[in-house]
Amino acid sequence: MEPNGKFVGAARMNHTILIGIILLPVSLAAAADDIRANPDRMEQNIRALSAFGANADGGVDRLAFGAADLAGRAYIMDLMREAGLSVRLDTAGNIIGRREGIEPDLPVIMFGSHIDSVPGGGNYDGDVGVIGAIEVIQLMQDNGIRTRHPLEIVSFTDEEGGLIGSRAMIGDVDDRTLSVVSHSGMTIGAGISAVGGDPNRLDLAERQPGELKAFIELHIEQGAFLDEENIDIGVVEGIVGIRWWDVTIEGFANHAGTTPMDRRWDAMVSAAEYILAVNRVATGMPGGQVATVGRIHAAPGAPNVIPGEVVLSLEIRDLSAEKIQRVFDEISAAAEGIADDRSTPIRHAEIDVASPPAPTNEQMRRIIAAAADDLGLSFKFMPSGAGHDAQDMTHIAPTGMIFVPSVKGISHSPKEFTSAQDMANGASVLLRTVLAIDGGALE
Length: 443
Ligand SMILES: [Zn+2]
Description:
443 residues, alpha+beta, nine-stranded mixed β-sheet, five-stranded antiparallel β-sheet, 13 helices, 16 strands, binds zinc ion
């Protein structure tokens, strides 16, 4: 055993030296491949951006179209110029920084996110994607990397008010949307003008299928899966679809003191059973589907009257439209049972706000996963429960999305936090993904 063991050991050593010699030139040539984002620089840029709209709680109020948004946008444009990009606004007010490719006629590889926030927002939602995209360009500048494809970094207009910039890019903003009053108090149309766009010529902001080689968005997870499981990178499988219903339960309003318990048609009691059924159905099948009753209204709504009618909300989300339908069908069946048992009819009326699931491109998922793997980062495939500009971009370009951990899953809050190293990991994966696509990985 022993001589044999020694022999194996010696062979291994020789083998290692041999591999070292053979790989040396290769690893030098592959140096560009090993570039990693700079956590300190990203942290510094995130901090600087956080000053625009900073609130007393340590978060930001950088509502789209407001003064803080304008100042933040100016800062982002400066950063883009510093990184060597030529900067323009499209008519939707999207900030676009362009870097020419060696072959200027090739389709554009686009990546980015948004810098507007919700009221009382945090310092990472959207911001990490824009700062990360600029970091990628800065790394290319620092390391003398040129790409075949032109690159465009985008900071989308008014993401939090309804994905306005990306919807304009796919031709999905109409006059009705433009007249909606946004968080800032301005209509979306007036807001687009205020940031330098032209709401009357949104057609010019549209990008056609084929114009973009790919779209990639780096974003914080805004949920707790990566943080809890200690995983570096989420490879997003898609943005979940959402459907909403108004649910009306019909009972009979009567005196709460004189009506005995066995002679009641109590809509509230049926509502209680219905709510439990929703939870049971969504919990009872495998998968990541979620179903929620988030609002309830009982009429007439007095302590001494048996509720004659209850109206509540039902929301179902999943990555698959069929799955959403299946969850709804099971809830419907359960509702029929409750309605029969208690003689309180239950009606579902769907509300017209449905957004269909937006799966990311399968090849893009594999490219992002391989990039994470090559960098020695752990990753998992996961859906996004929140909406993102990327969901619009799936309509016109192969789209991929990279998640980095949100500590404790907190988002849309000043307590939102992502570490500098996690931000840098995301940007490193983004760089590698862009270079892989540029090199032909997406054919
Ligand atoms: Zn966001």
